[in-house]
Amino acid sequence: MAKSTQTVEDAEDPGPMTVEEYFRWREGREEPWEYIDGRPVPKFPSEENPVVAMASGTANHHTIQLTCASLIRARRPKGCRVATDATVEVQDGRQIPDVVLSCAPPDAELVMRDPVLLVEVTSPSSRSVDFLHKPAEYSELESVREIWVVEGHRRRVRTWTRTERGWEIVDTIGSGTFHSELLGAAITLDEIYEDTTI
């Protein structure tokens, strides 16, 4: 079970701030925070209080995250790189997807530039944000070709693939398989959920 370093009673909303203030405020914090609509938002909010940031997700969450990163890295186009928990700039702030694939030249910045594939692994407290809010933001980025939202408590993956006709959305469940156009590969849910209790 993920633990927070703050109690629900002691939690305070950090309030609005600039991007520069956000990066200074985030330094030294154990819990990951994203920057949305001009204010810090916990990546792993507490189920009791959305202002309380949890230090991490569950063991299943991190296993799925690592597995997705490994699957993508093994199949990535030449010259592209994979990162976990890297910051991505979106229209209204900065998000921290679970996995990012970018084909932009590497640099020393804190932000992954021009992502082409973004993966979010859901937690019970962030499921609605991961399924609705984040894909809508990610789909506005011109560089993004695919988005995967992987359920962290049951076998289900929803993929968004950019096509000439717009975004194609596919749900894959159970032991199903989906095709990644970007990676040129079939991805099985048995692979994604390997070594989890799901």
Radius of gyration, whole Å: 16 Å
Mean pLDDT: 84
Major sheet details? 6 strands, mixed
Helix and strand succession? HEEHEEEEEHEEEEEH
Oligomer: single chain
Q: What is the CATH topology of the largest domain?
A: tt1808, chain A
Give the strand tally: 12
Helix content: 10-25%
Class by helix and strand content?
alpha+beta
**Unreliable stretches covering 5 or more consecutive residues:** 1-10, 51-55
Number of domains: 2
Characterize the structure shown.
By secondary structure, this protein is an alpha+beta fold. The chain folds into two domains: 1-56, no CATH class; 59-192, tt1808, chain A (Alpha-Beta Complex), CATH 3.90.1570. It has four helices and twelve strands. It has helices at 19-26, 59-75, 127-138, 189-192, and strands at 33-36, 39-42, 81-84, 88-90, 93-95, 99-102, 115-121, 146-150, 156-163, 166-173, 177-180, 185-188. The strands form three sheets. It has a six-stranded mixed β-sheet, with helices on both faces. The protein has a four-stranded antiparallel β-sheet with strand order 2-1-5-4, with helices on both faces. 34% of the residues are buried.
